[in-house]
Request: fold
Amino acid sequence: MLILAMAFIALPVVALFLKSPLDTILGSLHDPMVLDALQLSLTTSALTTIVVVVMGTPIAYVSARFHYFGKEMADSLIDLPVIMPPAVAGIALLVAFGRMGIVGHYLNAFGISIAFTTLAVIMAQVFVSSPFYIRQARTSFEDVDLAFENAARTLGASRVYTFFHVILPIAMNGLISGAIMAFARSLGEFGATIMFAGNFQGRTQTMPLAIYTAMQGDLDVSLCLSIILVAISFVVIVLVKKLTRRMYKNVKN
Amino acid sequence: MLKINVKKRLRDFDLQVTLDVERGKTLMLVGDNGCGKTTLLNLVAGLDNPDEGRIALDGRALYDSEYGTNVPPEARGIGYVFQSYALFPHMSIYDNVAFGLRTRRTPEDEVKVLVKEHLEAAGLWEIRKAKAALVSGGQKQRAALARAIIIEPRLLLLDEPLSALDVRKQTAMRKELRETIRACGVPCIIVTHDLRDVACIGDRACLLEQGKIALHAGAEEVLSWGLSTTARSK
Reply:
């Protein structure tokens, strides 16, 4: 049963490599569509990760340490994008921030248009990937023994000093692995992006969108992009495993 | 001199304690698990707040419900050794001991001198670069104590300082601990389960039962009532 399950996952991945000869992949690497998509995907995903980390870290810490009115609801709301179909997220973003959307309508009056721009790509990615970081960060903060915080306070550290010098470093491995997961999720983001940002090469056409578009013409380009994404996925899994393993070792000590 | 007069509602009972500890004297706090010993230390350290009452150290109020005084823990100048020692696992022994000086923005060359002095006195200078998570129980205990006393606290609080050590080490550490505390010359409260600690380290002793002081006496007298009272309640 296990072999069957593993074969089911491994076979398509192997097929991807078997069906794409190395020279055609290298040839496709110079295709402007591939280059544009690769560059756009990496920059938007990197920016998304920065936004998610900067905004998600305080949210995760507050959620891990404090109880406040409506906390249950806030936590569920944060987790919602994980279960929400990405296409629905895209539509939702469109009716909120699109030209005719609830907020977008007012922004449009000031000449600001978000939908179908690179900013929309980032917003779609932030929307779907933030829970991956926040959930992991919340768990990491919860795992930091309260005694460390108390010890720091009695030694003269303010709350802020304690956060940056004690809590953050202890939770760091978990935070990094959460950030990598969010990065990977934004890299693979398709549904919300195509709905909210459209599919314009060089502006909003990220790698998954380019794979989809190229499928209709040049399969080699699709395969080349897919191989790159598979390679990145492998690196992500290895990194996250390594970091979480080290984290457990630290906690045990 | 430390003066405590506090009341706090806990889950199963009220913690209600009035006691004084004089300068240079050590009070041993004995009692069963969950009788409020650690809570009392946390109240004094400011990590938890009483419902009402007053805690004063050397005439200055740290907490006073009447006047709304509540000095935050970082400004109380109290050396606290936690039961788990709570050494910061991501820092070396050196950085752990230096932590309290750095939060006070002590100049780095002064930090160097002081930390060296304390680490050498505690026999930890050789392992100063080791990560705190990786040293032995005895070394952790000494590092935690050094970290607490390097800030020249006006009061020392120790929560079960020897319970994480094996029995053979406890005897040696008990003497060492007594010397170190005496040298500080400040009031000190030690929470313990072990009556040998009481007799060896303490000047006075308190038995806490269900949040109230059941007995209060000189440390030497404890062995007699301790054997009958705590043995019975266990």
